[in-house]
Request: fold
Amino acid sequence: MISMKLVTIILAFGLLSTMFFSPLNVQSALAATYTDVSVVAAKTMIDTDPALVVLDVRNQSEYDTGHIRNTKLIPVWALPTRLNELNPSDTILVYCKAGSRSAVACQTLVNNGFTDVYNMIGGITAWIAEGYPAYVNYSSIQAAIDSASTGSTLYVSSGLYHEHLTVNKPLTLIGENKSNTIIDGSGNGTIFNVTSSDVYINHFMMQNCGDSSQGFYGVCVEPYCSHVSITDNNMVGSLGVLSNSVRADLGEDILIGRNNVTDCVDWCIYVTNSSSVRVLENNIADNWAEARFENCTELVFSGNNVTNNPVGVALENCSGSTLVGNSFQSNLFSGIHLSRSSNNLIFHNNFVENTQQVHVEESGYINTWDNGYPSGGNYWGSYTGVDVYSGPYQNETGSDGIGDTEYVIDAYNRDRYPLMEPYSPLGDINGDGIVDIYDLILVASAYGSTPADPNWNPDSDINGDFAVDIYDLILVAAQYG
Reply:
């Protein structure tokens, strides 16, 4: 006879088995080991966490037809033998076509000690349905351009493409990564020939175009094209002969921004007979010739690093231009070369160790070299004046960061208010030349402090009221980017 105590134990064991080992609870236990997220949440993770690892577990052919930017491809069937390619401590977002293979991959990861794993529900199918970009490995980018509808966007996968592209309709072309989405001209021809207005070219590496003496360039904007943007590209001659990075003629509203332009054999940027040209935040360094602008009006040349070229920037017969916030350093002949150019505003630039800071070719052409007092003019590494007085008329004792005597360029051009220290933008707390998230972090770290506090940072006190507070955050936010 079975004792009552044994019956009780058996019943209790059965109850526990039902609670912990039923199919429903086994599934719940497994699901709890990683986190399911929607495509909207996944997009937020990708946009806000630069260290996030995005893992595509489909096959290569699926990946080539469209994938999320900068993802790592490891097919789910190969994952168990390639776990060493991933770091168990990284945050990993996994996706596939619709979500089933990614769930298997997530479980494989957590079973092997990965602790921060997310499964994107719905996969790339849901991602595209939400309107988010998918990068395609095209067999021919030109064929994709030809078949694209006017005004559409082409997302080009990383890879090496040997092509010469003609963009003859309003389009946006975005490379997956400007380090490895490479358009190679094979030593001849122009890489991007733009014959239409409303064209945007972003995040490509351009190399090995033909010789500019034969009319070939990295990007050539044909006459009468307007609203053309060339941004965030690498144009690096050391990876192939790039005779000329950007050439534009008779254009209007041309943006050349945040490009890395180095080691070019011919003019690195050459714009003629154009108006409303913006050249912003480019790195123009180690080239064999200058950025050159001829017969241009309303040029804005701002935030550029112009280093170690024969000439930094040359203006010929230009007027109404603004050159502000640039660094001209170690250029062989001059930082700025002016020929028959007048009525240009040039201030808040840093001129350091150029053989000649500014060369004015012809006498009699007058430009403005400061933004008045107290904004000031430019920083000149060769300036020998002192800062004893303050005020625009030097009638008060006390330094104000502006030299007491003018910096003379020639008889017609002089900086009335030369800066005593290199210029950096308002809110650029760490002095890297741009107001960005790192400056906000520095303000946040010192937030609420005064000079008596251990976390006080005087550089974070932007408005000078001896307190790091909301007003300083507002000033950084206003200059952000």
